[in-house]
Design brief:
The chain is built from 15 helices and five strands. It is mostly helical. The strands form two sheets. The chain has a three-stranded antiparallel sheet with strand order 1-2-3, with no helix packed on it. Strand 4 and strand 5 form a beta hairpin.
């Protein structure tokens, strides 16, 4: 049989070795990665593969946009892939922020030019902001895994990098801080505080809550980041706050003009309210932790807390292990339970 001759196909003769003498076939077009072909050049699958790869390269060359094989091209491929499209909207938004930063830095660089040294230089350049450094490296690792799967590179240079140490944030809002804030904040910020401190939800979900999701007893929502459907029974103090609030629009929390908050505007307004209340060292994100800590201190189990916060049970247990302060009150509660158990045994005798 006459061997098929196709453009951009290269032969490599291997001699000896465990498999003996053999000829390997590769497809390589300028500006594209080297790709292995089937061993038989007369196999219809061999020919179809070459035709498909040439068509793919032709289409990429005609499309306006980043250079084929560049980092910017990889980002574009990933954003248009099912891997990215199936992510929740909030996750896409978060990944998009870091991908834009990476593209601005490495856009024209060939993907294979991202080495282990490049990864560590990137990480070390952000040593002053370790949380952000770890976040961007996680996204880079995910992106380069995608590149490996698509045959653009052989190995992922961002696989298992050492993360920068980030001090765990353990702040929770005390009842005194809560009282001070609620006394000085305006009605909108008071309601915002109550929703955050008594539902254990993320900022994006709280800002998106609508009156239709509240039935007078329970708030039902699908978390924007995870897609998890949760039903949060409302604490009596939260119910009182909701039932007494003015309804200015579809969403529960609105600006003074009745519009839904945009995240940057809300963050500015919240920071202003905290400063005016004289609260120091506490942030909005601490309220989710505060809600979980308070439930745990009240005796709720990890399973019960997970039903409210939307975390998995394993995630909830890890969060409680990392963030629940071992307070004197909790210690006293443990001893009281122990004493009660012993008293019960004495009575049985």
């Amino acid at each position: 049989m006459v061997e098929a001759r196709l453009k951009w196909v290269k032969k490599v003769h291997k001699r000896g070795g465990r498999k003996g003498d053999r000829t390997l076939y590769y497809w390589r077009r300028p500006g594209t990665p080297l790709r292995r072909l089937p061993d038989d050049p007369n196999d219809p699958q061999f020919i179809r593969q070459v035709i498909d790869w040439n068509a793919e390269a032709d289409a990429a060359a005609k499309e306006p946009g980043p250079v084929y094989g560049s980092f910017a091209h990889l980002v574009d491929l990933y954003k248009r892939s099912p891997d990215f499209q199936k992510l929740a909207d909030e996750t896409q938004k978060g990944y998009g922020y870091w991908l834009s930063m990476l593209e601005a830095r490495y856009g024209d660089l060939p993907v294979r030019g991202i080495t282990r040294q490049v990864v560590y230089r990137l990480r070390d350049s952000m040593v002053e902001t370790p949380y952000k450094a770890n976040a961007v490296i996680r996204v880079l690792r995910l992106l380069l895994n995608f590149a490996v799967d698509r045959g653009l590179i052989k190995t992922n240079p961002a696989a298992r990098p050492k993360q920068l140490k980030v001090a765990s944030r353990r702040q929770v809002w005390s009842l005194d801080a809560e009282k001070t804030f609620l006394e000085k904040a305006d009605e909108t910020m008071k309601l915002t505080y109550m929703l955050a401190a008594y539902t254990a939800q993320r900022q994006a979900d709280i800002l998106a809550m609508t009156w239709a999701q509240y039935d007078g007893e329970v708030i039902r929502l699908r978390q924007r980041k995870t897609g998890v459907l949760v039903e949060v029974p409302c604490h009596r103090d939260l119910r009182a706050a909701l039932d007494g609030a003015k309804r200015r629009g579809t969403v529960i929390l609105t600006t003074s003009t009745g519009r839904a908050w945009k995240a940057p505007h809300f963050r500015h307004a919240w920071k202003k309210a905290v400063v005016e209340a004289g609260i120091e060292g506490l942030q909005f994100r601490d309220l989710r932790r505060t809600a979980m800590v308070r439930m745990a201190e009240a005796g709720a189990t990890a399973i019960e807390i997970a039903a409210v916060s939307g975390h998995t049970i394993d995630q909830t247990q890890r969060i409680l292990e990392a963030y629940i302060p071992r307070s004197a009150a909790m210690g006293r509660a443990a001893i009281i339970k122990l004493e009660g158990k012993k008293d019960g045994k004495r009575k049985e005798r």
